[in-house]
Amino acid sequence: MRGKGINYDTGARLSSGWTREAFDSATVRREMQVLAGDLHCTAVRISGSDPHRLTIAGEHAADAGLEVWFAPFPCDLTAERMLPLLAECAARAEDLRRHGADVVLVAGGELSIFARGFLPGDDLFARAALLTRPGPDLRSLLSAVPARLNVFLAEVVGAVRSIFGGKVTYASLPFERVDWTPFDYVAVDGYRAAHNAATFREEIRDLHRHGLPVVVTEFGCCTYRGAADRGARGWLIVDRDHEPWRLDGDYERDEGEQATYLRDLLLVFEQEKVDSAFWFTFAGYKYPHHADPRHDLDLASYGVVRLGPDMTWEPKASFHALAAEYGKGSAH
Questions:
Q1: Is 190 domain-assigned?
Q2: Percent of the chain scoring above 90 in pLDDT
Q3: Does the residue 173 lie in any domain?
Q4: Model confidence over 26-66: pLDDT tens digits?
Q5: What does 106-133 look like in DSSP terms, one character per residue?
Q6: Would you say the C-alpha torsion 121, 124, 126, 128 has a positive or negative sign?
């Protein structure tokens, strides 16, 4: 596998607040050095809602020798409001590229859920809740997404390619059925869960039918027993109506399950000739560890590090698993 990657959150602005409040250049620089040196990553997908933060992280990633997947992540915006943001980010990514960085522009991700207008719901949490209620109504809603989304993505690609001279992709959900014709990579957020465990390998293999390199822009698992079966929905165990946030039930920490999931999926990606894959994620900045299991939000985190209340971190079992897998044959 060419690109040994991880996701890195610079802060996305959700209705519940920023996914990362504190952001400073020195911390980001150190963490990029950890990704390249300790985890043996060769690529990082840098996501977030603030173009300035993305640029800072991109510069530090390039300095650390990482391929930069510059990934603006607009949340709860309409299509009309997203276009200027994506165009600004394309300009920033192009500036990085012209200064010598190896840059791929990820022009949005999972927009059917994160943006307004493709599925009903006033915010991300309302739209995500739809996916937990399978049935005829959900199938009807999802079947209407691809046509509208592909019209918008064609507009996005036209806009960003006039600004950015590197390769362009989009981080898709499987049901979005993206028209990959104008893109340079087929990119999917590929989570294995109970509902697709039997077909997951075939789903990844089938992506090659488009004739483009295949990238898994996200894959991951939370840190509690049973999280592997929930895949991309593992984080939906947080009671956000309670102040402070807490888990919605009793869960048992299982770092081993997270690490096993990581190794299993990397093996699939290697065998199915995936070009690059990005573990989700380095740290869940809104999900600190707590001694009380009911308030241990780290269980709902996909991060390979466990954060303390002061945002210092310690590696989890998945950190060591990722380092070992990415370090095989590495010159680092």
A1: yes
A2: 91
A3: yes
A4: 999 999 999 999 999 999 999 999 999 999 999 999 999 99
A5: EEEE-HHHHSSSSSS-SSHHHHHHHTTS
A6: positive
